[in-house]
Design a protein that fits this description.
There is one protein chain. With 397 residues, this protein is mainly alpha-helical. Among the domains are: 81 residues, no CATH class; 125 residues, no CATH class. It is 61% helix and 4% strand. The protein is built from 14 helices and 4 strands. A 4-stranded antiparallel β-sheet has the order 1-4-3-2. A hairpin with a 3-residue loop joins strand 2 and strand 3. The protein is globular, with a radius of gyration of 22 Å.
Length: 397
């Protein structure tokens, strides 16, 4: 068993998966500053481990299918794509595991499908992501080594690997959506189960293809989410009822995430995990307060026969209304984010006496946590309270 776990934790299975999907390093050595390979590309250096500050990823096409990604200290990692079907499939699948996808998909569910489904997914997402992010910085397992692995996402390489939060989020969101809807909407059980499985599997495999996680990281992330879903499912209705009706719900929804963010595990270097975790918990906190307020005010619900998950009823009129709701909602969310970001950063910069553009100052605990928590809790509150009010004024309810 220990040998199997050691193999699954290694870099070679990831490299073999990449090669089987047509992704290769530009030459065998892969050393930074090496001589150009036969394909005319210069290899990148080793881009390994967590802790090094990375420059932003930059992928561009060059002749003969050779591409490049920026590595540490300006080092450029070149790679060859021989199968573009897998390349674009897994790049798209990786994007489905990013926070930005869930921050748009979850409000879409709230505005167009069902309030209760959205509430459950947001709570599950917040819990799963917090546990996953904290586990990374406690375990401190490194990501796959490069070489032999080709790494396509440099920003994520500044974090530790175990567990894969992409795998955790994809498993939690897809199966919680399936579980929450299977008894309330008319669609084939097998279709829903297959869709959840395919979605989570694609995101999990994308973490191997992009070279960001070992096989054990991915399996561990998916299993942790599965266990959390099993443990939380019996309490779903109770948790939902308390969040909607308890007079202490808004206070708890704000204080508990804030305490967790301020007491996030400390590292010897800056990692985006704390900021990402604060963003997720902030959005979840704001949305939860919005749920509670809507219930107190008996806000109008979106639910209606035309918007149930009955695919034959998805007429052109229904699709236009759904799209209008989404576009109006996303526009307001982006405006809220921009406004709150400017205001909160301005206040913190004035209080702590630093230039707003000072990235190092913005990464300090006393700045990053309130800045991101207030900004994204405002976004969550806007998505669940302000956007529905605007939809009502525009006749989109």
């Amino acid at each position: 068993m220990s040998r199997l776990l050691g193999t699954l934790r290694g870099s070679q299975p990831v490299a073999r998966f990449q090669r089987s999907c047509g992704l290769f390093p530009a030459n065998k050595e892969g050393g930074c500053g090496s001589e150009p390979s036969a394909e005319g590309a210069r290899d990148g250096g080793a881009c390994n481990g967590a802790g090094a500050l990375r420059s932003p990823a930059a992928t561009r096409g060059v002749p003969n299918g050779v591409r490049s990604g920026r590595g540490p200290k300006g080092c450029t990692q070149k790679y060859i794509v021989k199968n573009y079907f897998y390349y674009y499939l897994f790049k798209f699948s990786a994007a489905l595991g990013e926070e930005i996808f869930y921050i748009t998909f979850l409000p879409f569910t709230y505005w167009n499908i069902d309030h209760s489904v959205a509430r459950r997914m947001i709570i599950i997402w917040s819990i799963v992501m917090y546990i996953g992010q904290v586990s990374k910085d406690i375990l401190k397992w490194p990501r796959p080594l490069s070489p032999p692995v080709v790494k396509l996402e440099i920003r994520a390489d500044a974090e530790y690997g175990m567990p894969s939060t992409h795998a955790m989020a994809a498993t939690a969101i897809s199966f919680s959506f399936f579980i929450a809807t299977m008894n309330h909407y008319k669609y084939p059980f097998e279709l829903g189960l297959a869709a959840a499985f395919v979605f989570s599997t694609l995101v999990c495999l994308s973490r191997l293809y992009t070279g960001m996680h070992t096989v054990l990281d991915v399996i561990g992330g998916a299993l942790i989410s599965a266990v959390l879903l099993v443990l939380l499912y019996p309490a779903w209705d109770t948790i939902d009822h308390l969040l909607l009706t308890s007079p202490f719900s808004p206070l708890i929804s704000i204080i508990v995430p804030l305490v967790l963010c301020y007491n996030y595990p400390k590292l010897d270097y800056y990692s985006p995990t704390r900021g990402d975790t604060t963003t997720i918990l902030g959005a979840g906190a704001g949305a939860t307060v919005g749920f509670w307020l809507n219930n107190q005010l008996a806000a109008a619900s979106y639910a209606g026969e035309d918007f149930h998950l009955r695919l034959p009823l998805l007429t052109s009129k229904t699709a236009v209304v759904m799209l209008a709701r989404f576009l109006v909602g996303i526009l307001l969310i982006l405006l809220t984010r921009r406004l709150m970001k400017s205001v909160v950063l301005g206040v913190l910069a004035y209080h702590y006496q630093f230039p707003v553009a000072d990235l190092a100052a913005r990464r300090r605990l006393e700045v990053e946590v309130p800045y991101k928590f207030i900004t994204y809790s405002s976004v969550g509150f806007s998505a669940t309270v302000i956007v529905p009010l605007l939809h009502g004024l525009l006749g989109l309810m």
